Amino acid sequence: MSADPVTPGPITKSPVYGVLPLEKLREMAGIELFKGMMAGELPGAPIAEVMNMWIHEAEPGRVVFAGRPDRQHYNPIGSVHGGYAGTMLDSCMSCAVQSLLPKGMGYTTLEYKVSLVRGISDQTGIVYAEGKAIQVGNRVGTAEGRITDAQGKILATGTTTCLVFPI
Predict the structure, then answer these.
(1) Closest Cα partner for 140 from 115, 114, 160?
(2) How far apart are CA 94 and CA 110, in angstroms?
(3) How far is Cα 87 from Cα 91, in angstroms, rounded to an integer?
(4) Is 55 exposed, middle or buried (0-12, 13-18, 19+ CB in 10 A)?
(5) Number of independent structural domains in the chain
C-alpha cells in the first residue's frame, strides 16, 4: 500500500487488482473483505483501477471511497462524465450494504438513483463517496450516498436498493 503523496491522512490504494474466487468470498463477512482490501491483503476491484478510486474508510454500515478524477474520465464537452459519480455512488452505497452481510451472503445492485449537483473536473481534486446503509435484511438492502470534494461541498447524491442472497 502506498500513501497518496499529495493528500495527508490514511488515503491508500490497492497495489493489486483482481477478482476473488467465490469460495474465498463465502468465507468472509462483508466488512472483512473491505478491511483486507484496505490492508493490501486482498486485491482491489478492477474497476477501482480504471476509476482511480480506492476504499478510504470502512466500518459496518458505512463505506467511503476516495477518488481522483482525471482527464481520462472526461466526456466530449470537457467535464468528468456523470458515470464517474454514478460508479462511485454505486460502489460506496452497495458496499455499505455488503459491510453488514455475514459470511456466506452476497448482494447485487437492483437499482440506484443519482442526482448530479455540481460539475466535476480534473481540477476538483480528490473526491469522497460516502455510502451509509439504511436497512439491510435477509433479502433486500438499501443505502444512501453522497460525493463531496475535499472542502465538503456536495457534488452528487444517490440511493440504492440491493438484492441480498446466499453465495
Answers:
(1) 160
(2) 10
(3) 6
(4) buried
(5) 1
Cα–Cα distance, 125 to 99 (Å, whole number): 27
Signed CA dihedral, 99, 102, 107, 112: sign only: negative
Rounded distance between C-alpha atoms, residue 167 and residue 158, angstroms = 26
How far is 34 from 98, CA to CA, in rounded Å? 9
Position 10: which residue type? P
Task: Show the domain range for 15.
Answer: 2-166
Supply the CATH number for residue 65's domain: 3.10.129.10
Cell triple for 160: 440504492
* Predicted confidence pLDDT, tens digits, the chain (167 residues): 333 333 434 445 656 899 999 999 999 999 999 999 999 999 999 999 999 999 999 999 999 999 999 999 999 999 999 999 999 999 999 999 999 999 999 999 999 999 999 999 999 999 999 999 999 999 999 999 999 999 999 999 999 999 999 99
